[in-house]
Amino acid sequence: MIDTKLKPGLEDVAVATTRLSSIDGEHGALVIGGYPIAELAPNATYEESVYLLLNDRLPDEEELERFRRELADRRSISEEVASILRQAATEEASAMDALRMGLSAATLQSNANDGRETAHRLIAVVPTIVAAYWRFRQGKVPVTPRLDLGHAANLLYMMWGEDPAEDAVRGLETYLNTVIDHGLNASTFTARTVVSTESDLVSAATAAAGALKGPLHGGAPGPVLDMLKAVHQTGDPEGFVRDILENGERVMGFGHRVYRARDPRAEVLSSAAERFYSRSGRDDFFETAKELERVGTKLLLEYKPDRPLKTNVEFYTAVLLHGIGIPRELFTATFAAARMGGWMAHILEQKRDNQLVRPTSHYDGDTGRVWTPVQERKNSHLRK
Amino acid sequence: MIDTKLKPGLEDVAVATTRLSSIDGEHGALVIGGYPIAELAPNATYEESVYLLLNDRLPDEEELERFRRELADRRSISEEVASILRQAATEEASAMDALRMGLSAATLQSNANDGRETAHRLIAVVPTIVAAYWRFRQGKVPVTPRLDLGHAANLLYMMWGEDPAEDAVRGLETYLNTVIDHGLNASTFTARTVVSTESDLVSAATAAAGALKGPLHGGAPGPVLDMLKAVHQTGDPEGFVRDILENGERVMGFGHRVYRARDPRAEVLSSAAERFYSRSGRDDFFETAKELERVGTKLLLEYKPDRPLKTNVEFYTAVLLHGIGIPRELFTATFAAARMGGWMAHILEQKRDNQLVRPTSHYDGDTGRVWTPVQERKNSHLRK
Fold first, then answer.
1. Tens digit of pLDDT for each residue in B240-286?
2. Domain definitions of chain B by residue range
3. For residue A21, what are the β-bridge partners?
4. Between B310 and which of A19, A187, B32, B262 could a Cys-Cys bridge form, CB atoms 3.0 to 4.6 Å apart?
């Protein structure tokens, strides 16, 4: 029997030192690569944010141009991967299932080394996989990636088959930057655990995407949108939220395990969404969101006064991505497209100063059972 | 700044309570589902061991027969997956890369629920993926799985295209049982972390396989075989090991992070290998292994007297699997075929009493950097 206290969620257990992001849950502050999130997210392109995480500084014009080209050159997928994605779409597998399949095969027809080149390859290929899957879901053929477009713009272009508006691209850049990294969340920690065995980047990225898929991690913005749409239709946020709380259920889009103050990412995305909706002339949906935020916060304080529950990143992710025109089915996959930059930076950081992750467990089973051949076992009395 | 001590390897941090396996590293004891490993491994079929982990008891004849059929019915792979495996083989991707690709797509054309049915599906499909990949590597077509054969026998049959000898099947069963589970090793912990987000079994299994691939985890038996073959050829184990130690390198197949006594799995596999080699009339290779074990243990005590380094599971995995006729390229994938049973049992256990795994980190980067537009950045002095 091991004499250690059980830590099933590893809460407050620090497993790594990182230069990538810093979370201050008490004060609601998030720093990405040295920049407060509100400083970085609305200004940078996604390529700049990725470069920042991989190099601990922003690129100058020449470096950025080279980096953009390096990523753009790694966007294509093989025919075999396209077939798998078509099959996934035909069977209506989720976008995250399709992404997992695509990522796991992303080294095929790639001659990248298992370091920065593969990191670039994995970052570059996510939009292509997601968009191809989506085109198949629509009964259309995938759109070939365009080399002249940036990462965010090209994602929208491949999804829609037409040039995206500037506002949509800026909105998506801001979203991708906002959620690019966030400490040792479950998927990032999964990625670091996988490479801690000295396994490769593709295995780690595939594993991380699998973890992000879970509703407790990356799977929540979809249900937030359902709620927003319902409230937008009824026009009665108070009745809607009160019903949820009276039934003892969770109000989606509020509260976060780490933040006791407001999730700083909600702030950044709220501003981005406000800017986007006001320009697109669809202010009414944004007003519904603001009203739901106001009412939800008030009622949660009434029902759960012990813990302040503010809107979280998922709340305004749903608002912003829906505004841009990204379908609900791709919300988590778009999150993955953003987080891939963080995963890669964490993986490379882990590889620089690695230690095998191997926790322990408490055993509460039997010991000393004695073998009996199958012919002598009679379990009929044990069966239900 | 979080005021917690850094635990980069999570050594001695208990993250789960489990009924599946218990490791006593001090005394070199391993219990699987209540049975000491030496009691279970040489006697059970792999299906019995899996049933044990999933049900906390061994099946009777009727239950075992039903379970065998349930697994056998889930062995086939789709054409899309076969294409990916062919491509992987053509490019000489590793067997573990191929397995990751195959597993990640294993839900295609499967109507299993995301519980026991998918667990059975994932366990059943590993041999098919691995054998199909291997057949493609040989320039042959995959062999259709046979429903009348057990899990171990069918794996050998699909790899070779002919009925395996009884001794080979028994040897493989013993191997699969011996390594079916082993506490919260990195891959099992990865699987539990992935489902802790309420993600699905396929994502968790794919992630676990990715972790097992690493040389610090499942990737070591191959190099042991290289060493054994070299020693078998020169006939000078002492000179061989002394060279390694004089160069300050690690002797493969000796020592384990958890066991200070001899790895109990080495014991079980050593006996199984001895039985197998003596019947197959190739005692000389086994004698080389025994001699290398004797000499290696002696020299390690001489060079590293502070820590007793005995042969570990990888040492006799290499001896036994090589004897059976499993190619070195498939050692880690065969390990995965075994461990899939343990992964599935751990995943189902985690789901029954789940808590999101989310550790924390220390931050040692900058804070408060201020945004400057790319045009104003001049990094030429920073570049190498």
1. 999 999 999 989 999 887 888 888 999 999 999 999 999 988 889 99
2. 21-214+333-352, 221-324
3. A32
4. B262
Segment holding A363, helix H or strand E: strand A360-363
Q: How many helices (H) and strands (E) does chain A have?
A: 16, 5
Res A2: pLDDT: 45
CATH number listed for the domain at residues B21-214+333-352: 1.10.580.10
Written as one string, the DSSP assignment of B122-175 is HHHHHHHHHHHHHHHHTT-PPPPPPTTS-HHHHHHHHHHSSPPPHHHHHHHHHH
Q: Which residue of B has its CA nearest to A111?
A: B91
Q: Which residue type occupies A87?
A: Q
Name the DSSP letter for residue A162. S
- Is B302 a known active-site residue? no
Set of chain A residues whose Cβ sits within 8 Å of the Cβ of B374: 48, 58-61, 64
CA nearest neighbour of A183 among B186, B323, B360: B360
DSSP output for A210-273 = HHHTSTTTT--HHHHHHHHHHHHHH--HHHHHHHHHHTTPPPTTB--SS-SS--HHHHHHHHHH
Task: Give yes or no: A314 in active site.
Answer: yes
How many residue pairs from chains A and B have C-beta atoms closer than 8 A?
423
B120, B256, B322, B346: which one is catalytic?
Answer: B256
DSSP-derived 3-state class of residue A159: helix
**Per-residue DSSP letters for B78-134?**
-HHHHHHHHHHHHTT--HHHHHHHHHHTTTTT----TTHHHHHHHHHHHHHHHHHHH
Which pLDDT band holds residue A145 (cuts at 50, 70, 90)? very high
Name the minimum distance, in Å, from the CA of A244 to any CA of chain B. 21
Q: How far is the alpha carbon of B239 from chain A, nearest alpha carbon, in Å?
A: 29
- With a CB cutoff of 8 Å and minimum separation 6, the contacts of A150 are A45, A46, A47, A68, A169, A173
Annotated catalytic residue within A314, A322, A346, A349: A314
Please give the class, per CATH, of domain B221-324.
mainly alpha
CB B338 within 8 A of CB B247: no
Contact list in A for residue B57 (CB cut-off 8 A) is: 379, 382
Q: Are B18 and A367 an interchain contact pair (Cβ–Cβ within 8 Å)?
A: no
- Here the ipTM equals 0.96
DSSP symbol at A381: G
Query: What are the Cα distances from residue B377, in Å, to A18, A20, A63, B380?
Result: 25, 21, 10, 9
Contact list, B27 vs chain A (CB under 8 Å)? none
Note whether B307 and B17 are within 8 A (CB).
no
